[in-house]
Amino acid sequence: xxxxxxxxxxxxxxxxxxxxxxxxxxxxxxxxxxxxxxxxxxxxxxxxxxxxxxxxxxxxxxxxxxxxxxxxxxxxxxxxxxxxxxxxxxxxxxxxxxxxxxxxxxxxxxxxxxxxxxxxxxxxxxxxxxxxxxxxxxxxxxxxxxxxxxxxxxxxxxxxxxxxxxxxxxxxxxxxxxxxxxxxxxxxxxxxxxxxxxxxxxxxxxxxxxxxxxxxxxxxxxxxxxxxxxxxxxxxxxxxxxxxxxxxxxxxxxxxxxxxxxxxxxxxxxxxxxxxxxxxxxxxxxxxxxxxxxxxxxxxxxxxxxxxxxxxxxxxxxxxxxxxxxxxxxxxxxxxxxxxxxxxxxxxxxxxxxxxxxxxxxxxxxxxxxxxxxxxxxxxxxxxxxxxxxxxxxxxxxxxxxxxxxxxxxxxxxxxxxxxxxxxxxxxxxxxxxxxxxxxxxxxxxxxxxxxxxxxxxxxxxxxxxxxxxxxxxxxxxxxxxxxxxxxxxxxxxxxxxxxxxxxxxxxxxxxxxxxxxxxxxxxxxxxxxxxxxxxxxxxxxxxxxxxxxxxxxxxxxxxxxxxxxxxxxxxxxxxxxxxxxxxxxxxxxxxxxxxxxxxxxxxxxxxxxxxxxxxxxxxxxxxxxxxxxxxxxxxxxxxxxxxxxxxxxxxx
Length: 653
What we know:
The chain is an alpha+beta fold. Helices cover 15% and strands 36% of the residues. It has 10 helices and 38 strands. Strand 16 and strand 17 (221-227) form a beta hairpin. Helix 1 runs parallel beside helix 10 and helix 5 packs antiparallel against helix 6.
């Protein structure tokens, strides 16, 4: 007999977060993350999965978190990053298995590494402590003052903080050369900037790297090139606001990467720059890259492979550099977490609400002969089967007409309509409904308990074309909320739900949930998580508000405070009659807790509508999917309990 999903299932789930493949023989080294319940944390181990379907082999056993696997060009060693010694450092182990050894010692945590083509050394990105009172001056061999928890945090540029890390001006991230045999390290870059990503030319003579800008504003990133020794740096881009994931072509004559023109734009396009710095776009402005780490060149240098976000789904595509439209290799109603080619085969992990995260392989030429390689979550087959159906909805387009939008409707296969309905609003808004289990544990739990879950990709969502996404700029709440109303009304007419309707959302989803309950009594229960509640205050308190909010308000180049106030849920929250629970990471720097506190206090003082606030100490914006396991379990349980408690009774109007 099948068992219902429970919140505790999050402690069982294992997920592949990274893939790096080698061709001889085709094998995927994968980072597999799971929960360490006893220590209320996570562990990650490296596994080898033969792409011919042979048995998987565990490569590391801890302690600590092992990640970022990289096969050596000689296929004799595997490099990876591990915090088993306390701080994330580089480790090497024989490809055939054996004991791992630390290679070199870096002043701060290592966050990226890649082999040089000769296999004798690596390039490593690692943190370097600096003194904020240097105000961006080069270290020049100076030793920064020792910092304590009470040390002053001096801000002389923006951003000075980031969600998940907090204050960030006491360190920089730079490139180092690491000799694999001796462990000797040589710093390659220096200055008041952070290296965000990099790649090494096929001949090993040059490094392409993404770095933040120096000076007053450091949120923009540019692509640079230097010699393998770190000398003769050359800036290759300046007109883009964001650059990510550079990859050298096989000839070494050009670099492909993803990026965006506008500050705060979450829709990354593909770009190509040659050795001299001539830049052009690959594909169309509506082509949306879902992850900069999924970009690869084909061996002939004529095409690139990458994972594309398309209509709320992911697909692996091939794009010739001379073409505008890609050809599809792998698609379906699913999303991909990681992807890597390996000669004739390629490996990818897939997410779907009705299936657990697992590893798959298929032919690189045409995507055929797909095969599941892992069975990391066998427990899933013992749970209540859930169906996730893609549906279309006819909704107002905000321009006097109607349009068709898409969404996912989830329920347990054994349940019959009508069912109580949760309208779960995704974040962004320039994103789309993410289907991963880790963030949305409560979906499956609610389905097991007889709920349906609606997850819309309404106007403003990415992956449906540039116009559809940009139409929401400056019109938050005005265009998107009517589309959610129309979709729910369509489900009522179809007999899928009745008056038992609730709403939930986090970040921008929290914004729209708070907006909805202030402008309607449609919902019997609401969950508002880490919202944008007061856009004017968000501009100055969020780690990225000062450049993202002007874009979202449709006033890039300046900040329209009058419009920001007009479109803030805070203005109408006192009218809300929907019982609402607010969930918030106390150390959130993306949507700081003041955003939630203003909404909660205003609602509490306005009347007797049930409202609760839950703050999670030491948690940031990603508490729901990446916070401590105990926090994720608590939040999911509170969501389910609040919805079930209040959805049975009509609201008091």
